[in-house]
Design a protein that fits this description.
383 residues, alpha/beta, Rossmann fold, 9 helices, elongated
Length: 383
Amino acid sequence: MIKIKTSLLLAIFVPVILFSQTNNLPDGDVKIYNSSGAKVTRNDSLVSPKKNQITSNHSDARLKNLSLDNAKLENFKNNSFNNLNYLPYSANFAPKIYAVGLDSLAKVIVIAPSNIKGSLKERTALIKVISQDGTNSKTYSVVFEVLPKLDIFLALGQSNMAGRGKMNSADTAAIENVFLLTPGGNMEIASNPLNKYSSVRKALAMQQMSPSCSFVKMIRDKTGHKIGLMQNARGGSSIESWLKGSPDKYYDEALRRANEIKRFGEIKGIIWHQGESNMKDPEGYKLKLAKLVSDLRTDLALPHLFFVAGEINQWSGGTEGFNAMIQTISTFITESDWVSSIGLTPLIDEKDPHFDAASIKILGERYAEKVLKKVYKISPKTK
């Protein structure tokens, strides 16, 4: 009688059992990894560990990490089984997928998408985790969606651009066909507050309704284009903090994030609202704003990038000279324009430099009117 070692039987029979569990998965590039992320042979990955290798969480079939091209999938949680990842318009292949189990000896099977521009099934990657003891399995998915080339805008400045107009629950709904740059340099469907991912912002609770909200909606509606937004505003900031070389590095962060979003489309313009911190020196401000715009255009390699600045409030004492200077912006910055704050109202009272939510909406539409006229040759009527 011939004796066959148990380990050999496992090597022969276990793969059949485990792969039969994946028969309902889509066609694609099947890659098997151990939970350290190293690719292994099929037999090695599927043979049960020896007794002295058994871990305390041997029945755990959850993932610890899920990475795309060596970068962790943003917002991934081990109980998030369905995930979405947007790819830029130029993408032809899905990112490489790396998965690591909570149990270091769990089996992880990655089935890559077969066609990122195909059907939902073809665009879906599946990651199956089988616990070390074989009693549990879980399947995670990542759906890839290639975005069209987006019309991209940058929203920069201080508190009125960050947004202080109070939001209501309806304001937090997803903004269809508008995409917001995330901290990891990816895109997601935009929702308020739009300054939430600013890398220089103050506390999240302070971020409310921004003029960029009505701005992107109006641009989207009037052009029929899908819009990308990079917003990086900071309440209370001065123009000096925004200049290239400032130790505050607001310029560096704006440039870094602008370069991140460029792969998703074409930057069409910058909307800027800042000045409450500098209203006592409008002549000095002119030189600094011109330098800021020049540096951004040079460093983004967009010498004719359209720039729109907004007037600050009309009710605080001493704003008249600053607003008069903003109205002359085209005389010291080429390819630029300005928007009025006439008729807008304060958030709290006339000691408050912030606009209320209704005024913020009007202000955003005024920005959109100038961009539509200059960039798209469309002349809508606004308040």
